[in-house]
Amino acid sequence: MTALKTRKPTGLPSWPMVLLAGREGAGKSWAAAMASASELVGRTLWIGIGEDDPDEYGVIPGARFEIVEHDGSYQGILAAVRAAAAEPMDDRPTLLVVDSMTRLWNQLTDNAQAVANRRAKGRKNSNGDYTVSADLWNVAAQQWKDVMDAVRSHRGPAILTARLEQVMVMENGQPTNEKVWKVQGHKSLPFDVGVLIEMHERGHFLMTKAKSARIQIEKPTPAPGFTVETLWDRLGISTQAQLGIRTHADVVVDKEAAPDAEAQAAAVPSGRDWLAEAAQATSKDGLNALWGQIPVHERSQKLRDRMGELAIAFEQRAAEPSPEPEKAWASPDAGPASDWPVAPIPQGEEVRPGEEETPPLEGMEPEAPLTGGDDRG
Known about the structure:
Blueprint: E1 17-22, H1 28-35, E2 44-48, E3 66-67, H2 74-86, E4 95-99, H3 101-119, H4 134-152, E5 158-171, E6 174-184, H5 189-192, E7 195-201, E8 204-210, E9 221-222, H6 228-234, H7 261-266, H8 274-279, H9 284-293, H10 301-315
Parallel strand pairs: 1-5, 1-7, 2-3, 2-4, 4-5
Antiparallel strand pairs: 5-6, 7-8, 8-9
Helix pairs in contact: 2-4, 3-4
């Protein structure tokens, strides 16, 4: 029996994962580039996914960021995020920017659709595509999780961007007249970040989530003059502050339950490194042949997932390139400095946004809040 292991909470703030979700041209990338000018951070590593590289944003006063290059494939993107997260830091933490998570999820779903079309099984939808089967959705979801896990492994601040769109509310499978604003990406994205800022139009900021004892919001709250650096300050992060380490209690799913415990105990390990051999495969047929050699008791979920990813990579070699990325126009407009109040500590858990109009945080100039805000995952 495993001994119980516990620890006491530190009570210290840690660098958050911030999601900037906005409409086209709302200034998501601009806000991320401005954050690189903060004296709280050292290097800034910018990983673009399906978006124009922000070379011109290098003229922002104080901006200091490096654009991470990759080949645009899922494996290239994942490797770039992992390498950036593992980069050594000096006396100041490295800021990690991933722009955009929407295009990453689009890529994963496009890959799954391409494989489904090549299989040519099942029914076609109205677009002439074959239905994506559950196993392909599972592969896409795992690939998304691998990228998010890589971001979580980063010990410094992280900024993710995503597109925000109005979508029709469905009721009993039928569209209604009601529309809501929705983050475009895997459905788990808003749950995985610590702070969510919605940008319905340029210069308008709505805080809809803040996982913090220092900023308490009960409903979507306008945040005039928002900047990422101001957010960090309100979260209790400063050059003099003592910070904790962001930790994540992940779960590990073990689907390899042996039907016979005695048979499992009697199984003799082959001693072969199946992951390494799979990485050396040069075709899908080679992967299938290798799979036939692997004993049942050594077919772990990790091995299944990895070989599934490799199979998809082989099948999509001739896939069409991604659509032309959207072009975001930048403007150096910055809102007025804000003075966000510090909430008493502790003060209960955060409350997910409601429908009612909410006044801005005390001490800010009031703005007219905007109304509004599914993907497969």
